[in-house]
Design brief:
about 400 residues, alpha/beta, Nucleotidyltransferase, domain 5, 2 domains, six-stranded mixed β-sheet
Amino acid sequence: MNVLVLNCGSSSIKFQIIKTNPEFISNNSDKRLAKGLLERIGFKDAIVTFQAEGQEKNRTVRPLEDHVEGLNVIMDWITSPEANIEGVKSVSDIYAVGHRVVHGGEDMQESALINDEVIKVISNCSELAPLHNPANLMGITACRELLGDSVPQVAVFDTAFHASMPKESFLYAIPYDLYEDFRVRRYGFHGTSHRYVTMQYASQSGISLDDTNIITLHLGNGCSACAVKNGKSIDTSMGFTPLEGLVMGTRSGDVDPSLIEYIGDKKELTAKQVLNMLNKKSGMLGLTRKTSDMRDIEDAAIDGDEQADLALDIFAHRVRAYAGRYFVEIGGARAIVFTGGVGENSPILREKICRGMEAIGLTLDKEANEKTWRGVAGPIHTADSTLEAQVIPTNEELLIARDTVGVVSGK
């Protein structure tokens, strides 16, 4: 079954076509057939990049007025002889469309077939994810306009995996009326990634999801940790917004809330401007004063840049603190799983994060750690460790495709 997976931003559309089925089986039955990226939608110099699997990348610059036109361009390419995508010659060869949607609030606790009611929920959650949900809706609306009811569409929510968190995890210690009236609470994000690596860990370990007690670390430009007990999220580091929690590329992660007023007074900034600073000018960028790119920071640290090395230590300290806390919350974990662009590809940071974890049963195998990157999965702990450390590359698009097939087929 061929699924078109869409991830729509305010001026971009990322897509993949994936051949899959709803069963999560660790084998070679899944296959990516094509991928692409449309950037600068709404401008005369939009960048369009297409690539069918096993073929050369095709990149052009052209005007794109809106997401409808962008999706028209995608569909024209997908069904063209030039694309030559295996098993896709017309729109009828697309089984369904799966949309990544960031926020589903409390109403959407699992992936859902898109209808007017689901669209209303996504729209109502836009004030909770103003940078993401409106863009996700643009993609859904454009698909409806272009495809009508001929191809079913499914929404897969980043927040859904964390819907299993208990109240002691998701409630803030603020007036309870704020939760009752405005649903101010911790939601968590990166749920599709955390869910994927949880399922993959269970599958490769030969255990059931009900017996899967692990700590998952999604480390990229955005970062979050998740405590998984019996296969379900019971706590996660991101909160009401993706700003809370770990140190990230440009986000501060946890800070004292009083800093907003203090910084505003000292720098003569509004609360909105301070929040913009915490979201876009802090994290690794703020600490290094140069870059948010972890590769550049690691290179600088190796060359003796003390500020870069300090930034890496601060990043690792925050991750390690959350991992230790979640180990206790779970009641003893079986493994710590690293994923995401940084988690999968940075032996330096994984080593820094694992320092001192001998206290909870994990000893890093330095040789295995050094060899595990660039898409390579595997264990990076010593044979005598009672707590595993695993690197599992994430694949959110594949899980979106599988969810989409499962929802449409009723499985």
